[in-house]
Amino acid sequence: MQSNLSDxxxxxxxxxxxxxxxxxxxxxxxxxxxIYFAAQQYYGENSLFSGLLQGGLVILxxxxxxxxxxxxxxLKSRLTYPRTGYVEYxxxxxxxxxxxxxxxxxxxxxxxxSLVFAERVVSFLNLTLALTGILVGAILIFLQGRGSGLERFxxxxxxxxxxxxALSLSGLPDGYGLGLFYGLMGxxxxxxxxxxxxxxxxxxPLPAEGERE
Amino acid sequence: MSNELRSVTELDRLIHEPAxxxxxxxxxxxxxxxxxxxxRETDLTKxxxxxxxxxxxxxxxxxIEKTFKGKLPLTVCxxxxxxxxSLTQYRQQLQDFMNRTQ
Lengths: 213, 102
Fold this sequence. Notes:
The structure holds two protein chains of two kinds. Chain A contains seven helices and one strand; from the N terminus they run αααβαααα. By secondary structure, chain A is an all-alpha fold. Chain B has helices at about 5-10, 15, 20-30, 35-40, 45-60, 80-100, and strands at about 30-35, 60-70, 70-80. In chain B, β2 (about 60-70) and β3 form a beta hairpin. Chain B is elongated. At the A-B interface, α1, α3 and β1 of A face α3, β1, α4 and β3 of B. β1 of chain A pairs antiparallel with β1 of chain B.
């Protein structure tokens, strides 16, 4: 039996990530974003389709998050809860508001920096791409990695930073660069989540009828 | 009896028992958890876990609800406000004791 209560608490919090389902869904979201940015670049700024796409970003984000939540719940109900049990997490409103404020402040600082200073200083870099990579990487490392204590999020965060900077040097137009960035990050997320899910299913077979409760 | 020893005797014995302390700690981290999850996390047998949960429920520390998730029967356990208060108090008492004896 675990004697360290802090370890127990950390393990219970980490249970959310035990099956990789969150990453699989997040990966799907990233790929959708990638397709969105690439399509916008492909159709050009002045086309009707591009205008529709611009208005559709908010719908894509809000709709994607709603569908993602529904999908996670459905998959966990089918795969995770019958195997290793059901847990409902407490919504820590104060903490989640603090997180939102941190993300908003970092995003605002990054945007302000790129608008005011950076364009003049580092003209050889595509700043949108580099800063997107750094921002996504920082969110993965500080919010997901540190919050869960799982190494794979540090790896994904590092990959985001490296990929963002590498693509910023590639000379690709913004839309294709962002499309490639989100597409590759999406695939990385899906591979990571898929591996975790595969191991989880192997290690936790479905209990027989009589074994449940 | 010294103050240190007296503070130990004042500990809530219902929570002080290791298995129950583990159950209450797990439930304090989440909104609710089912029997299967608690059994896996505590490594207790069904009978043992059931007995400990019953004692915690009798004391008003845990609320147990039998429900269904789709076709699966679920026994969902939740820490009550009295349970949360007792755990906080227990940890504080233990911390105070450790501080005084160091």
